[in-house]
């Protein structure tokens, strides 16, 4: 039986929150939750989890053998999951409701390469749409010519005791020294533990990593008890397009802890990754005083302080100021027939994305859809998006991004 984590003083607002979930319209941001479940961090910051460790992010760029290179990309991806889906539990005791970014919100930082030859890894993240909420990001390292970019959007639905979340979007991981690109699709997830005020994420369904070299990994996720009695389990099968029916490697274990890899030709099994030992480097973010009004930490600083104080009225007042300001800006733009100019990313229609379309076709997934269905009778096709968000190329040249 799970332990009830709702503070006594907030139990009636938690009951009201649970009731409001019952008539929920799919937009998680619209739910008014009590302070103890709010995070003072905006979703634009979550893009940083794509670089869980400098070492894993750059490892594939240093590998000469294409097959081993692919396995290093898989290792980097599996290594990102702990930060993406467990870090709030680790730091704040449970999953929290993040701040819902406003259109044009920016978050940028660097993992500084102090004494190594690899140099800095730069992150830019931008809220490119508010309705529906879409966050786009890019993370790159000029020295090793590693470039990641992607975007994501979520759609939630309610079942009896949990919220199911589908993720739209994908990431493209590029190794320019090898002229290789890897399409990374996103897993589905559900949020459990809500009744007890202790939400946590479980991954479900499948995600894929498809390389332009023909290697493909199909990663299947499960919670406790399917593959083993352990939480956060996964099983990934690696194949090559030359012989798609014969599995080259099987990687399995816990994405938040240890996993192992089996070479299916030789039968040799080895440790693959211990995600609990990821060497999280510190993301250096400019102090708030040096940030501009669109930068996440500066823009939300009063709301974040109110959340930390647990002051519900203040949270509401400060959030309303931002929301009203945003509404006014949209009205003005509409009156002038203008649209908000995104800073770093632009919309690209799918037909102008030959590489993405080719990788989707190689992976056997429909372009512009959720790619996480676990059912073998469906292809995971959901409402399609007709556009992708891509970083304007000139920003890559600009190692030190100006926000
Ligand atoms: C669903 C989620 C917000 C979205 C988060 C995403 C999908 C964002 C992109 C990251 O790359 C991966 C990621 C990780 C966790 C996802 C969050 C988990 C919970 C949060 C909900 C909005 C919170 C709902 C909390 C509740 C039920 C109390 O309102």
Model description:
It is a single chain. With 403 residues, the chain is α+β, with helices and mostly antiparallel strands. It is built from 8 helices and 18 strands. Strands 3, 4, 5, 6, 7, 8, 9, 10, 11, 12, 13, 14, 15 and 16 form a 14-stranded antiparallel β-sheet that branches. Strands 1-2 form a two-stranded parallel ribbon. Strands 17-18 form a two-stranded antiparallel sheet. α5 packs antiparallel against α6 (312-336). The protein is globular and about 60 Å long. The N and C termini lie far apart (47 Å). The model is unreliable at 374-381 (pLDDT under 50). 25-hydroxycholesterol binds next to α3, β2, β6 and β7.
Architecture blueprint of SSEs:
Layout lengths: L10 H12 L15 E5 L11 H6 L6 H27 L4 E3 L6 E6 L9 E9 L4 E8 L4 E13 L4 E13 L4 E6 L2 E5 L7 E12 L3 E8 L10 E8 L8 E6 L3 E6 L5 E6 L8 E2 L11 H4 L1 H9 L2 H25 L8 E5 L4 H10 L23 E5 L2 H4 L6
Parallel strand pairs: 1-2
Antiparallel strand pairs: 3-4, 3-16, 4-5, 5-6, 6-7, 7-8, 7-9, 8-10, 9-10, 10-11, 11-12, 12-13, 13-14, 14-15, 17-18
Helix pairs in contact: 5-6
The structure holds 25-hydroxycholesterol.
25-hydroxycholesterol binds next to helix 3, strand 2, strand 6 and strand 7.
């Amino acid at each position: 039986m799970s332990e009830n984590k709702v503070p006594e003083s907030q139990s009636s607002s938690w009951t009201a929150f649970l009731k409001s979930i019952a008539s929920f319209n799919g937009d998680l941001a619209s739910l008014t939750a009590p302070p103890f479940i709010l995070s003072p961090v905006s979703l634009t910051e979550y893009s940083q989890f794509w670089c869980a460790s400098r070492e894993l992010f750059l490892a594939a760029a240093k590998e000469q053998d294409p097959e081993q290179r692919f396995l290093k990309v898989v290792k980097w991806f599996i290594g990102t999951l702990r930060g993406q889906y467990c870090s709030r539990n680790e730091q704040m005791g449970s999953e929290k409701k993040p701040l819902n970014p406003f259109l044009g919100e920016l978050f940028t930082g660097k993992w500084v390469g102090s004494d190594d030859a690899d140099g800095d890894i730069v992150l830019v993240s931008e809220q490119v749409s508010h309705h529906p909420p879409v966050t786009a990001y890019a993370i790159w390292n000029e020295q090793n010519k590693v470039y990641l970019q992607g975007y994501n959007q979520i759609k939630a639905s309610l079942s009896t005791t949990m919220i199911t979340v589908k993720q739209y979007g994908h990431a493209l991981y590029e190794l320019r020294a090898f002229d290789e690109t890897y399409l990374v699709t996103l897993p589905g997830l559900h949020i459990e533990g809500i009744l007890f005020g202790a939400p946590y994420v479980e991954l479900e369904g499948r995600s894929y990593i498809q390389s332009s070299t023909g290697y493909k990994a199909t990663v299947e996720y499960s919670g406790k008890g399917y593959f083993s009695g352990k939480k956060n389990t996964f099983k990934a099968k690696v194949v090559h397009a030359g012989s798609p029916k014969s599995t080259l490697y099987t990687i399995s274990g816990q994405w938040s802890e240890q996993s192992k890899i089996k070479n299916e030709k030789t039968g040799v099994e080895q440790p693959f990754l211990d995600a609990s030992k990821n060497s999280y480097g510190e993301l250096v973010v400019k102090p708030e005083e040096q940030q501009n009004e669109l930068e996440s930490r500066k823009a939300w600083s009063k709301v974040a302080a109110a959340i930390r104080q647990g002051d519900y009225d203040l949270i509401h007042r400060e959030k309303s100021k931002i929301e009203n300001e945003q509404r006014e800006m949209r009205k003005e733009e509409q009156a002038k027939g203008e649209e908000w100019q995104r800073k770093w990313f632009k919309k690209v229609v799918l037909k102008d994305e030959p590489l993405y379309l080719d990788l989707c076709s190689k992976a056997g997934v429909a372009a512009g859809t959720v790619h996480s269905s676990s059912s073998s009778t469906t292809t995971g096709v959901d409402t399609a998006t007709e556009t992708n968000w891509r970083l304007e190329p000139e920003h890559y040249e600009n190692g030190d991004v100006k926000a």
